[in-house]
Amino acid sequence: MFFIYPSVRRWSQVLFLVTGMSSLFLQASARTELENESVRGGSALSGEFLVKVKSPSILFSFAAERSLLVVPQPLLKTDAGFWFKIVDTSGEFDAARLESLGFDSGVLHAEPNLIWRAVSSLRGGGKGDDSDNTNPPPENPPSLPRRPRRDPQNGKVWGLAKIGAPAAWNISRGDVQVVVADIDSGVDYNHEDLINNIWRNPREIPNDNKDNDGNGFVDDVMGWDFYNKDNRPWDDNGHGTHTSGTLGATGGNGVGVSGVAPRVSIMPIKFLSRYGSGTTEDAIRSINYAVDAGAHILSNSWGGDEFSLALQEAIAAAAAKNVLFVAAAGNDGADNDTVPMYPAAYDLPNVVAVAASDSNEQLADFSNFGLRTVHLAAPGDVIHSTLPLSRYGIMSGTSMACPAVAGAAALLKAYRPGLSAVGLKELLLSSVDRAPAYEGKVQSGGRLNVEKALLQAGATPPN
Ligand SMILES: [Ca+2]
Ligand SMILES: [Ca+2]
Ligand SMILES: [Ca+2]
Predict the structure, then answer these.
(1) Residue 302 has pLDDT above 50, yes or no
(2) Distance between CA 437 and CA 434 in Å, rounded?
(3) Residue 65: which domain range?
(4) At 40, is the pLDDT very low, low, confident or very high (cuts 50, 70, 90)?
(5) Given this model, what pLDDT does residue 38 score?
(6) What is the pTM of this model?
(7) Rounded CA gap, 228 and 235, in Å?
(8) Do 139 and 205 reside in the same domain of the chain?
(9) Does the active-site annotation cover 109?
(10) 406 and 277 in a common domain
């Protein structure tokens, strides 16, 4: 077998050069496709495929003999093989043909590089805003008041009282040791009400142009922007800043609102464009980054209606690392049991799928549901939260419900650090407020109650 290695190395070097030369062109065309407001979740980038192979060398040889480019860094490594992205500039291949070549190509499975979308709100967001596209450097957080001071806009956030958050905060106000990655359109990390809860990479020295922690990302002091491929995951859409505020706007600082978790570390991960769309490839790289960087919980307010095996395997890999994956159920008013929206509908032990409720204790009319595939409801209609440039405003969607559950999970994890991802999910589901609107619609039959979840966590030894 040893004689294979020199040729593999040679091929991979050639491919690396080819990929390098073509990457500008490829990036430009992919961006054109993603910066189209009408693009639908479930469509795919033309000519881009994710393939699962047992042996990279067979794929590299196969690709080199055709006009196929392989991105040399694997997307994912699992027990069963490697995932790579390949690009076909000739237009000769589709996923079915790649897969049908089987042994010749070394491809066990092939799928298009799908497009996913922010589960966009009905008001604001999802449109992009040029005035926000300033991508500023991170600032230093101001010091917090020594005694907690009232968050003046909490009265506008109807969901907090509904889910028992103020009572929950008498039990736990959270902890910056608990890390929640907000995988979205980025975050205004300098927002007056978020800056104190933004995760900082303790092993990375800023601005020295070196990858100090050796994770493959240079100067990633506060997450990563997988869309623009840089270390400033700035939010040029608005969606990610809004979800971050619901999850963990700084509580008790006398400013703005409070997240469900008043104290938490929010890891900003951007993979959605300013129009709210991103690819499977970047979603997987986002998940891998967050898991490797030590996130305990991932908040995912995005989806699409096509199945991706690669994404499923990435989330399963997060489960193996004991990471909870909270996902928005989707805004089509549809039954996810029959018309699944992913990633919410993946049947994995660490996935919590969240429907949206309104202030009248009804399922919001836009919310997806599913007795088998959607787990609980949380406030998601007319939600007041943070927006870029230290502003505040209202959005609606299961996108807004998802981070409320992620924030509740963060409070539980802060209170009982020994809780596993599955343990967190069990507590969230068993402590809901049941109501007729949710019976038969979501698995738990109820809506998030974070106070009851904490009380139960106190009564049960951590597993
Ligand atoms: Ca790094
Ligand atoms: Ca550095
Ligand atoms: Ca605040």
Answers:
(1) yes
(2) 9
(3) 4-115
(4) low
(5) 63
(6) 0.92
(7) 11
(8) yes
(9) no
(10) yes
**How does pLDDT run across 127-171, given as a tens digit for each residue?**
445 455 568 999 999 999 999 999 999 999 999 999 999 999 999
* Annotated catalytic residue within 239, 242, 375, 384: 239
User: Exactly one of 88, 132, 182, 184 is catalytic; which is it?
Assistant: 184
399 classed as catalytic: yes
Nearest bound ligand to the CA of residue 208: 2
Which helix (H) or strand (E) segment holds residue 243: the answer is helix 239-248
Closest of 241, 316, 296, 313 to residue 274, by C-alpha: 241
Asked if residue 421 and residue 369 are part of one domain, the reply reads yes
**HSE of 395, CA atoms in CB hemisphere, 13 A:** 32
Give me ligand 3 centre to Cα 169, in Å: 14
CB contact burial 441-455 (16+ within 10 A = b; e otherwise):
bbbbbbbbbbbbbbb
Give ion ligand 3 contacts, CB < 5 A.
151, 193, 250, 253, 255-256
Q: How many domains does the chain have?
A: 2
Ligand 3 center to 96 CA (angstroms): 51
| Residue 444 bears catalytic tag | no
Helix (H) or strand (E) run with residue 379 in it: strand 376-379
> Which numbered ligand comes closest to the C-alpha of 201?
1
| 105 and 222 part of one domain | no
Give the ligand with the smallest distance to the CA of 217: 1
Residue 429's H or E segment, with its range, is helix 421-430
Contacts of 47 by beta carbon, 8 Å cutoff, 6+ apart: 87, 88, 89, 91, 93
> pLDDT tens digits for 78-108?
888 999 999 998 888 889 998 888 777 889 9
In this structure, what token pair is assigned to residue 441? Answer: 């619609």
Strands 81-88 and 44-53: antiparallel
